[in-house]
Q: What sequence folds into this?
């Protein structure tokens, strides 16, 4: 499912006024935004701004950033960045959010995250009570996809690493005795620079690619929606849906916007995206529902209505279809 990513393009590149302006679509017959829709857009825009696009400060021409975290608790919010990331927690515990996955983490937690994958480490409540005995110690390695430029990953020697990085698009958790070798290397890489750091990172990724005890975190339904579609009609369709998916989507109006009849629109959308219009809308709605559940401000029935579902039964069925969990089960998972 898609979590909060549908507004990334707008939040990165447009000012607030431009976003509002771009929400207004008009052809000869229909105006697609009024004051009410713009008010909803403002609300959604502020909500989506909670997903932060971290701009990493990787100095000079370096493609690898290594840091040692030593502070009372994790502070970085729900965010994403262009770089891959390895997180090794030596001391700390709480909840880990990766895409649509929510799990506990503790000492020894080792995770590899793909590019632009939303994530968030949140400590248990006692970490926020100024207890000097509780703190975070972690090694974080962030590296650019440019590290594997050219045809490097196409070489037969890198087949396993290519598979590893592809799986990392959903996040990977490693466990078991094989972690010992990787974690030693992660402590070692803190002391390295330049070419030696680059070689050690390749060694770490090579060990990860051979790891037999690992688990992919985000579900198969999770999508980051980072594809750059060049077709102007498809961009209009996506934008209109992204601004209006919590309300009833009028397919004939959408077809009119794209300059096609309903049948042609549905065929066009499926050929470009591999899914139906309703599948795309439901992914957005379920993703929004997941976010609202983590905020704990609304009950499940209220969340269903807020996300555009016309009845609770339909919401329960669709939510389980896309997450493999009932809304109640997912809601309980988000509790401390």
A:
């Amino acid at each position: 499912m898609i979590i909060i990513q549908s507004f990334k393009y707008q939040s990165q590149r447009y000012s607030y006024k431009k976003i509002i302006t771009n929400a207004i679509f008009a052809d000869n017959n229909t105006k697609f935004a009024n004051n009410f829709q713009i008010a909803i857009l403002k609300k959604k825009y502020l909500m989506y701004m909670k997903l932060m696009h971290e701009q990493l400060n990787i100095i000079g021409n370096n493609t690898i950033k290594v840091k040692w975290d030593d502070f009372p608790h994790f502070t970085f919010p729900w965010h994403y960045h262009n770089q891959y990331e390895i997180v090794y927690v030596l001391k700390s515990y709480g909840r880990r959010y990766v895409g649509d996955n929510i799990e506990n983490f503790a000492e020894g937690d080792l995770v590899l995250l793909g590019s632009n994958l939303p994530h968030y480490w949140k400590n248990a409540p006692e970490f926020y009570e100024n207890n000097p005995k509780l703190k975070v110690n972690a090694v974080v390695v962030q590296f650019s996809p440019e590290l594997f430029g050219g045809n490097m990953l196409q070489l037969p020697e890198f087949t396993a690493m290519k598979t590893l990085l592809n799986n990392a698009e959903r996040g990977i958790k490693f466990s078991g005795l094989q972690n010992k070798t990787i974690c030693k290397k992660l402590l070692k890489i803190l002391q390295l620079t330049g070419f030696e750091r680059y070689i050690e990172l390749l060694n770490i990724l090579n060990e990860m690619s051979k790891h037999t005890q690992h688990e992919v975190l985000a579900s198969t339904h999770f999508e980051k929606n980072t594809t750059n579609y060049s077709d102007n009609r498809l961009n209009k369709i996506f934008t209109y849906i992204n601004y209006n998916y919590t309300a009833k989507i009028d397919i004939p109006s959408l077809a009119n916007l794209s300059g096609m009849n309903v049948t042609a629109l549905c065929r066009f959308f499926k050929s470009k995206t591999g899914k139906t219009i309703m599948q795309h809308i439901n992914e957005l709605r379920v993703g929004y529902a997941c976010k609202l559940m983590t905020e704990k401000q609304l009950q499940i029935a209220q969340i269903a209505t807020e996300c555009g579902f016309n009845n609770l039964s339909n919401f329960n069925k669709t939510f389980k279809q896309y997450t493999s969990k009932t809304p109640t089960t997912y809601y309980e998972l988000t509790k401390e």
Notes: The chain has two domains: 5-50+227-333, 64-216.
